[in-house]
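Something for you to look into today, if you have time. I want to see for myself how the chain folds. Leave the record below and I will have a look.
***
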Amino acid sequence: ETMEDLVQFVKDLSPCLSKVSHDVEGRQNDLLNPPQRESLGQHLGQIKTVAPILICSMKIFIQILNQEGKGTDEAIENRNYLSRRMHDEISDVMRVLEESTHSEGSGRVVTEVSGLNLSEITFHEVIKKINQLLASSVVDSLLTQQVIQHIVELGYKLSESFDGQIKNEI
């Protein structure tokens, strides 16, 4: 509960928030369900908004504490409220990500060598995997067929988000 602690907290938090933000935005772009995509974006936006406010509230708390001035209780209450809010937003991001994993299928492709859980990788990673499989000199036709089938299923799910001509084209 010193300024040095706060500085260290910000130094530790900044790269973590940047990575989480980057990863969640990447996952958000791959979501096929528009309401989940919007929800994830809203919660991530709230995290980006609340983080600097939380840091400011911590700074104010430390300043009031060091000056032994009035308002310590309010500063504690404000800091705790913002901490809870940040926790709730992070929990909501995790909930949406978990829901999206369940709603986008659980296509489990298994070969004699290893398993590949397609529901845990992004659409772009699935495409990269199929390109690797097709470029490989040893082609496992069953695995290739299952990965292609998964991509086609993703296309159908994606098309459900659209109407008319666009839906038919997809």
